[in-house]
Write a structure and sequence with these properties.
This protein has helices at residues 5-19, 29-36, 51-57, 106-111, 134-140, 149-155, 158-170, 176-185, 194-205, 210-220, 243-254, 258-264, 269-285, 291-296, 299-311, 323-328, 342-349, 355-369, 377-391; strands at residues 24-27, 44-47, 61-65, 70-74, 79-84, 86-88, 100-102, 121-122, 128-129, 142-143, 173-174. It has 392 residues and is an alpha+beta fold. The N and C termini lie far apart (77 Å). Bound molecules: adenosine-5'-triphosphate and magnesium ion (MG).
Length: 392
């Protein structure tokens, strides 16, 4: 059915486990995405073999989550995550089970999974094990909790945000009882670590129907317990390939408060810097595209700003050529490309150090970037002498 190397690797692992007398299947996202005809990246295997047993079957394994029953098996085509069938123990904090119990039946393993579409297993011959009507829900485009939704969300509140994220990724609706349970349990999302919220939002921003996702976020009331302003109307038509475009646009909507909001989701310094640049670019571009804009911002930052301007119908003119082309044509690309530095300035002007140096360097940079002054020592020297010796 699937013939990329991740599937080949998973099927060869299953075959070897079967030869050793165990049962093994592909489970979770890979089966769901294969049924949907979506590209599949991680093909996870579940088995009735205990982790120690899995390790005896294969030459090369890595313990990546042995306490949860997961062993990484290295086979030639690709590494495969193999997890022992398990049930989750008591949940005490709305997040993770205290302990997991390994079990020998696939049925029990599938029962602990969050949504019917994620609780389908595939055997090596391609046949499906689907106790909860996952295939039908996929056909109908519905996200439905496995078992009693309220209980499942009380166990692990992150599942509610996963439902929202899947609704953005797949364009699915959320089944009524499941949605009602989310409304009831929404406040529990506050228990979830910010890093895990961020990981879900990272995926949400890349969804094919972000508007649908944010609408579900609002309908479930989860938005009341998450930092920041989520307003579905803002997300109509939003569709991007880069999660930082998502965070930047989210920041754009927050207004003044954006730094506090984004920091609360633990964005890295680098991610924050990207967002900051995009917001600044959005402002300057309203007065047209200048060489200094092409010089100051990275291509992606300008692309993001331009995309938001188009989405919001802001008064930003279209750039005359492609951003990359304009950047390639710049006289210099970096500050360090200037052939003159502050020491040269001091020497040539014969003046004392002072804040004027920084200003002069900036003026010189702009003149060079704008093509009014050549990046040439002799020409710059004359320019300095003219500007700062005779005038200044
Ligand atoms: P993605 O495409 O984002 O990887 P996925 O469905 O594969 O989606 P994973 O986080 O990789 O999501 O989890 C793999 C599988 O484990 C899920 O399909 C689901 O069966 C189960 N699972 C993951 N998280 C939970 C959870 N919080 N509660 C219950 N089951 C879960
Ligand atoms: Mg996955």
């Amino acid at each position: 059915m699937q013939n990329n190397k991740e599937w080949q690797a998973a099927f060869s692992v299953i075959e070897q486990l079967e030869k050793a007398g165990f049962e093994a299947v592909v489970v979770g996202g890979a089966v769901r995405d294969a049924l949907l005809g979506r590209p599949v990246h991680d093909v996870d295997v579940a088995t009735n073999a205990l982790p120690e047993e899995v390790k005896t079957v294969f030459k090369r394994t890595v313990d990546i989550g042995i306490q949860h029953g997961t062993v990484l098996v290295i086979v030639p085509a690709a590494p495969v995550e193999v997890t022992t069938y398990r049930t989750d123990g008591e949940y005490t904090d709305h997040r993770r089970p205290e302990v997991v119990h390994f079990v020998r039946s696939l049925e029990e393993d599938l029962q602990r999974r969050d949504f019917t579409m994620n609780a389908i297993a595939m055997r090596r011959d391609g046949s499906l094990v689907d106790y909860y009507g996952g295939q039908l829900d996929i056909e109908k485009g519905v996200i439905r909790a496995v078992g009693e939704a309220k209980v499942r969300f009380a166990e692990d509140a992150l599942r509610m945000l996963r439902a929202v994220r899947f609704s953005a990724q797949l364009g699915f609706s959320i089944e009524e009882i499941t949605l009602r349970a989310m409304q009831e349990k929404a406040a529990d999302i506050a228990w979830i670590a910010k890093e895990r919220l961020k990981a879900e939002l990272d995926k949400l921003w890349l969804g094919k129907d972000v508007y649908n996702g944010i609408k579900k976020l609002q309908e479930s009331g989860l938005d009341d317990y998450l930092h920041g302003d989520f307003h579905a109307e803002n997300w109509r038509g939003f569709c991007v390939q880069d999660k930082l475009f998502g965070w930047s646009y989210f920041a754009f909507i927050q207004g003044e408060n954006w730094q506090d909001v984004l920091r609360s989701y633990r964005l890295s310094k680098k991610e924050m810097a990207f967002v900051k640049a995009v917001l600044a670019a959005c402002k300057t571009l309203t007065s047209g595209w200048t060489n200094m804009d092409y010089f100051t911002y990275m291509e992606e930052e300008l692309e993001a700003a331009l995309y938001f301007a188009e989405l919001r119908q802001l008064d930003v003119p279209k750039p005359p050529y492609s951003i990359l082309e304009a950047q390639t044509k710049l006289p210099i690309r970096e500050r360090q490309d200037l052939v003159v530095n502050g020491m040269d300035l001091l020497k040539w002007s014969g003046q004392k150090r002072g804040p004027w140096i920084k200003e002069a360097l900036q003026a010189m940079l702009e003149a060079v970037v704008n093509g009014e002054l050549q990046n040439d020592r002799q020409q710059i020297k004359e320019w300095i002498e003219h500007k700062y010796v005779h005038e200044g």
